[in-house]
Amino acid sequence: MSWVVVLGVSTGTGAAVARAAAEAGYDVFGLHRGNWPEHALRLQEDVARTGRRLVLWEADGSLPDVVEEGCARLTELAGPGSVKLFVHSIASASVGTLVHGDEPLAPRQLQSTFDRMAHSFVWWTQGLLHAGLLDEGGAQLLALSNLMPRHLIRGAAAIAASKAALETYVKHLAFELGPLGHRANVLSFAMVITEALQATFPPEAVESLVSTMRRSVPAGRLLEVEEVGRLCMFLASDEARWFNGAVIDYTGAESLPFFDTLVYGGPATLPGIRKDKQ
User: Fold this and answer.
1) 5 C-beta neighbours (distance < 10 Å), count
2) Could you give all domains of the chain from N- to C-terminal order, each with its CATH number?
């Protein structure tokens, strides 16, 4: 039986990927940090109704020791060559300015943001490969991103820089993994309203983002996490094998004016940020 591994699985996009994987006939191994226990329980119930298996592990997927233990658990649970899709959906980061204000981001905040949102993708790829867990017929390693690496949003420098590093890692991994039959891609999608986003920014900032976003995409609506989940499963299919080393645009033509309202010195900025919200 083929498995899907999801980091950041209990809620938001990661949970949507897990549901889509179960509906497509895959078993799921998911890591979460225990911040949303009620959502994790609901996810278990949803997957159980599909007849597939969901194994949840409460751990910090950004720690190298956890990678080693996780791969050992997967080997015992699923066996060699069992992972068809690996999705990196960790959305934990520090927000804040770099030098402005009384408390700019500290070194530990920058380091932890990079570990969670960039470095851990490499560590898990190394672990899954060296443990022989990747599907011999070719696995898809998928990093989730957004437009922040290409636009300035006040307070999001650490996120933007770590996502840029993540995209660079993926391009290099595609060339290193290609001869082995595996693929690595980045899925860059439009803003979705998740618990993590609502925990990071105050309500007035989220309201500003939502209202502006609706005016800034041709569809006039926000992307739904279920749509992201279904696309992830398509990218794991044989029909999508030619996607490799790509930053796949799934923004719905998310337009620059949306970001122009949020940049440094622009007509408006986020009305506040919650520092170091994990």
Assistant:
1) 29
2) 3-260 (3.40.50.720)
